[in-house]
Amino acid sequence: MNTKPMIPIFFTIDEGYAPWLSVALISLKENASKEYRYEVHVVYHDMSANTIIKLSEIADDDFSISFEEMPQTLDQLHDFAGNNYLRADYFTLTIFIRLFLADMFPQYDKAIYLDSDICVPGDISKMYTIDLKDNYLGVVNDYSIANIPELNHYVKDAIGVDKDHYFNSGILLMNFKKIRERELAKRFLDLMIKYHFDTIAPDQDYLNALCKDKVVYLDPTWDSMPCDLDEFENPQIIHYNLFDKPWCYDNVKYEKYFWDVAKRSGFYDEIVQYKKNYSDAQKKKDQESLALLVTRGNEIPDQEVTMRKIFESGQEERL
């Protein structure tokens, strides 16, 4: 029987993200402390049996990987137009599952959530052992947003958080026990159904608004993003967020970490082919999506109903 202390880690993906998840898993396993064992849960939507088998091969005695299909109940939430309002043009349904993990896995009181577009050169156990006290989350400021002046207006005036405290939801140390006690998932659904807030980063914006002042800010190396800042010398987790993805573009910061691991993954040929096939039309769409995000970020604060207005008016309370 394995008596090492256990660390639970969660990913949420669909079929398209499997190659990047393989890099995340391999780098995570290779660099994690051997003093712990790791229970990795991949909560997925629309993934093939062959892909699951391929990813399962990364597991070992101290690094288990289980696959849980996403609950179908989330597919039943629709807006007035009949469209699933747990979606946006550049997001997938999987992003919202992180808000429900604490309820879906009551056996855990603390866990780590990670996006799949990452590489982990650091020891993840060092992140897990950070004391959250009574706070809900351990987070890193989203300086990729803070460095876009046009979006500072959105963060401050639509969400109600200053740019230096607006955190990224792709890397989270989660206090499951406290999140369950405060019924985060229920509050999220109640607010979404009642107000239909317009957002540019749906799950992230709800977490920032609801958990304001109840988070621990981690060292930024735990969410190293390839934005305009200089590269960190010792990144612990590299998060290729927004459109800074080495499997799409050349000369992305921290790309050497990704390709070193990708070459040893079972998806390497597929990753290389994906980049080779990434067309000018797709790159143009990326630029259009970024421009749309900035445009919406400028427009949303002026809407009649925003998170900041609802919370600061006293109509709703934060967690």
Kindly provide the radius of gyration, computed on alpha-carbon positions and rounded to a whole number of angstroms.
Answer: 19 Å
**What kind of assembly state do the chains in view correspond to?**
single chain
Helices and strands, in N-to-C order? EHEHEHEEHEHHEHHHEEHHHH
- What separation lies between the terminal Cα atoms? 40 Å
The averaged pLDDT comes out at: 90
Q: Helical region count? A: 13
Q: What portion of residues belong to β-strands?
A: 15-25%
Low-confidence region ranges:
75-92
Q: How is the main sheet built?
A: 7 strands, mixed
Fraction of residues in H or I helices: 25-40%
Query: What's the β-strand tally?
Result: 9
Judged by helices, strands and strand pairing, the structural class is alpha/beta
Question: Which overall shape is indicated by the principal axes computed on the Cα atoms?
Answer: globular
**Strand order in the largest sheet:** 3-2-1-4-7-6-8
Quick tags:
single chain, 319 residues, alpha/beta, two-stranded antiparallel sheet, 9 strands, 15% strand
Provide structural commentary.
The protein has 319 residues and is of the alpha/beta class. 37% of the residues lie in helices and 15% in strands. It is built from 13 helices and nine strands. Helix 1 links the parallel strand 1 and strand 2. It is globular and about 50 Å long. Mean pLDDT is 90; it is low at 75-92.
Overview in brief:
By secondary structure, this protein is an alpha/beta fold.
What is this structure's SSE topology?
Elements: E1 6-14, H1 18-31, E2 37-45, H2 49-56, E3 63-69, H3 101-104, E4 111-114, E5 118-119, H4 124-128, E6 137-141, H5 143-146, H6 149-159, E7 167-174, H7 176-181, H8 184-195, H9 202-210, E8 215-217, E9 238-239, H10 255-262, H11 268-277, H12 280-299, H13 307-312
Parallel strand pairs: 1-2, 1-4, 2-3, 6-8
Antiparallel strand pairs: 4-7, 5-9, 6-7
Helix pairs in contact: 6-12
